Structures are given as structure tokens and as C-alpha cells.
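Extended Data, panel c. Modelled sequence:
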Amino acid sequence: MVTGQAGRAAPRRWVVGWTGASGAVYGVTLVKELIAAGIQVHLVVSDAAWRVLKEEMGWDATKRREALLSGLGLEEGDERLVYHPQGDIGAAIASGSFVCEGMAVVPCSMGTLSAIAHGSSDNLLARAADVALKEGRPLLLVPRETPLNAIHLENMLELARLGVRIIPAMPAFYSGPQTLDDAVRFMVGKVMDSMGIPHRLYRRWGEPDDQA
């Protein structure tokens, strides 16, 4: 729980970024799970991410707000989701005075990862990540690229040294996934573990099969 003005309790909230890396389903599933867990999500979506959402999930990128609400199963006015266009550099999440628990970029493209590593805050998504760094808040990145070159690896190492949690989109198989959705749930569960948010998205090592 975060604290607002005059010490009043404010809703739990996280900033989430979607970028143009493949794996849009990871970001969509994470936001659905956060909302279901009672977390208010402040979402910023890059232009490239909208292209991927169209290609991978069939979302109408020309009707962004409508596609977002429909894809997430929400209705207009639902306060559990606050959508910020990437070009709105003056949005609340661009300021360190905006109180939240942290930020997750899921999936994270190599271009966005590079911008964050080098402090290039020329759009809202990169600026919000920069704010998380400067305010000492948790910042989680889920890179999705293969193979990785030396520049990618060096940028990840630089961010890891700054305390950023790097969670590559590498599903495990010890939980016995039977479908692609099982693999997605595993990765989203690992992200939520790093957020400190309880979930039952996958069977942990040593748990019986009915615990997921």
C-alpha cells in the first residue's frame, strides 16, 4: 500500500509498459492478472507495441483505446486501468512525485532497453522507467529477443548493476506446461514474484500438481 496526500492510503498501483518486442501476450496477461489482484495499472503502450498487438493478437491498432479495453475485458471508466499514450510526456507517471510501487516493461524491446540503460527519455515509456531508477523504485524488464548480441548483453549488465531486475522471457518446463498459455502464465508468474504479488499462475518446484 502506498501513501497519498495527508497520509491517506492510496490504491496499490504499478506502471506497466508494452513495447514492440514479440510476446505481446506476456504484457496483456500481466495487466489482466494485476487488475484481478486489485492493482491499479498505469499503462503506456509504444507505437511499435500497437503494431505487434495487431500482428500477434488481432487488436485494432487504429482504435487504440477501444482495442485496449476490449482486449483486457474492461469497460470505459474502469479506474483499475489508466492508459497513457506514449507521446504524452507530461503524464503523471513522468514525474517522480507520482506515487507507485514500481514499473514493469513487458515485453521489453532491445531499443527500449537501450534507451533506459543510457537515460534517453524522449518518450513517456522511457521517461517513466528513468523516474523509477532515479526514485529508487523497482524496475523490471522482460527482454524478448534472440540471439543476443554484445550490445544487448552489455546494456542488460549495466541495468542489472543499477538494481534493475532483468527477467528474460525464458519459460521453464519443470511445471509441466501442456499448452502455450501454461508457458505464458509461468513467465507472468515470475514477473509477479519479483513484484511481490501473490498468485497461483504456475506450479512451483516441489508443489503437487493441483497447487497451480
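The radius of gyration is 17 Å. This feature is highlighted in the accompanying rendering.
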